[in-house]
Write a structure and sequence with these properties.
This protein is α/β, with parallel strands linked by helices. The chain has twelve helices and nine strands. It has a single domain, classed as 3-Layer(aba) Sandwich (Rossmann fold), CATH 3.40.50.300. α3 runs parallel beside α5. About 3% of the residues have low confidence. It comes from Rhodocollybia butyracea.
Amino acid sequence: MSLASSLDSPRPSQHLLLLQSSISQSCLPLIRHIITHNSAQKEPVKKLLFCVLHPPSCLVQDPAAANVQIYDYLDNIPGYSDPWMDPCSLILEAVKNVPETLPIEVIIDSLDTLLVDNGSQSQTYKFLRSLMSLISARSKPSRLVLHLCTPSEMLPLLVSTAFSPTIIQLIAHPPALLTHLATEYMTPPPPLSPEAKFWGVFIPISERGRDTEALIFGQGGEGSGGHSEMVVEVIARGGADNSGRRKAVERYLEGWDIDQGHSVDLSQMSSLISIWKRKVFVQEVAPDPTQNVSFNLHLTPSQQESRSKVPLPYAHEGVPSTQAMSAILYDPDSADDIDDDDPDEDLDI
């Protein structure tokens, strides 16, 4: 499953899509793509956008689109709005009002703000369970798209198989993170490094948000403006059915062109060109020491034949090889005191 396919349209068994932003990199370009993308199906997907953090103008390019329905709850703030209306109840009511025959995408921006407004983690989780039940029960492929910022209190609950057996997580990372790993840890992304080695380094560092923030906002960092590209970590869990059995987890990285609004290969990203540019090493042949000398070091064929006929000197010529290997040949010196008498015969032992 590619990044583009995970964004474009709901799949029959994939009812949950998590978009994870951070201070160093936002997922808003991916949300814009989901909202503006027209499904290839004959019947377009009805998109319900619930804004509780960012204004609709930041997410929707064409508010008049027929398949996009916007719910702006930015002014619905507990303690300030009179009267204040529970956004969870409003979202459930809006989803129930959509005809069952239509495929829908429920997009909530953002879940963390919704949790703050609701004030209860358990109540928010209960609301999401009810919302997932409404979406998964529809006859046409539908899904719930949740935008949250890592670290999030709701993330451990949402990624568990108890909430959804199948899930797609899209985690946004700045390109500077990959450049840092390739430079400081000598671990560029696959296929330049083995999969096991790269993920063993990438995962713990990426989960420490302060390290990534220091690369962007620290001394020498590029700041929030940065490049018009980002790296997306894709984590897909689940197969074709919704049986709840344990499924394999697929994890990979893809690039995203923010200006053009489409996915790109990591090797084609201009911000990562320093990683993929390889120096071509030409293997130099060692120079021949017999060249460029004032005399000839080579033998003619006749000289080689004469050399092969020269007998080599041996210390024990004519002795069979088996005897030579098993015998100790000793030539005594004139100062050696060699006799057959026992040197200790005078001792009373």
